[in-house]
Design a protein that fits this description.
Blueprint: H1 2-31, E1 35-37, H2 42-62, H3 69-93, E2 101-103, H4 121-135, H5 140-165
Antiparallel strand pairs: 1-2
Helix pairs in contact: 1-2, 2-4, 2-5, 3-4, 4-5
Amino acid sequence: MIWYTALVLAVAAERLAELVVARRNTRWSLARGGTESGRGHYPAMVALHTALLVGCLAEVRLAERPFLPAIGWAMAALVVAAEALRWWCIRTLGPRWNTRVIVVPGLPRVTGGPYRWLSHPNYVAVAAEGVALPLVHGAWVTALVFTVLNAALMTVRIRCEDGALARLPAADARA
């Protein structure tokens, strides 16, 4: 359980690093006339992602979930892949990446990196992590509850983001 706690805490630290990047990028976007959409769902998203981390540890401890190596190691690899995809998204979007939906007028939509193949690759990373992180140590209830609630939240979030992105000019092939 100690190594699993360390893994969950490492993911939490990664999330804090994301917030540092997001705050810097928010200032950058707003200084260039960026407008935010979807403020209403943001607190629910923060609560859900926090609950994922707490749920992982609580379920493993309270329900005495065992570590099953065949599943656990595969899921740990998926967590690492999800984090790599997330940071590829952050690197590709540069100062445009944010945990909020902020669009800067006049900037074209980014179509490079993982956005070449997927419209919302960061949300693929979130979904994968939401399944994999709990399942590393058998927390299947947390994985299931997060997945269902995240799917509901993503329908709102993606609709909001697509609406905001629709106001951008034609795609930027250089990104």
